[in-house]
Amino acid sequence: METGTRMRTATERKESRNDGPFAAAKRFFRRLRRGTRNALLGLFSLTPQFERVRIEQEVVEDICGLAAGSAPKEMIAFLTGSVKREAGQRVLVIDGLYIKAYQADENSTHFTTNDLPADNVYGTVHSHPGYSNRPSDADRQLFNKYGWFHLIVCRPYTRASIATYNKYGEPITGIEF
Questions:
Q1: DSSP string, 114-164
Q2: Cβ pair 117, 79 in contact under 8 A
Q3: Dist. CA 32–CA 151, nearest whole Å
Q4: DSSP per-residue string spanning 70-92
Q5: By the 8 A CB rule, do 65 and 27 touch?
Q6: What number of helices (H) and strands (E) belong to the chain?
Q7: What is residue 40's three-state secondary structure?
Q8: What's the pLDDT tens digit per position in 54-68?
Q9: What is the pTM of this model?
Q10: What sign does the CA torsion over 140, 143, 149, 152 have?
């Protein structure tokens, strides 16, 4: 410690906090900023807020039917659901598809994002018209933008031909169908 300086006591720090006519307002807004920041970090967290993922059987059947019906063109849809408590764990239950207008051909799909629901989209599903369900570079870019996990379904458009990937395009396991 330098000569001539001294540490303030806890009482002195508390008293200096109360100085000024707007001290209470400053403290309030500081707490509000901190709370808002924490809420936004939770909302846009880099880690998912669930331990398991389950996709309802009806959704799997819809995915396979849409893919087969779109062939030889690709199809795309967004996976929607909600997080529920089951046996003490947070389980993401995918119970629907959000299908929006898109343009497709044998190699790609194109869509706009202006009307996507923001609160319950957890990933995407799209089809490949061939027998490969491995992601392309364009698929990886899509994955990184929309949700936590992604599905690619290929011929013959059955449950067995669905592959699951994380937002980085890496294969993942453990998703319950």
A1: TT--SSSEEEEEEE-SSS-----HHHHHHHHHS-SEEEEE-TT-SGGGEEE
A2: no
A3: 39
A4: HTTS--EEEEEEEEEEETTEEEE
A5: no
A6: 4, 8
A7: helix
A8: 999 999 999 999 999
A9: 0.70
A10: negative
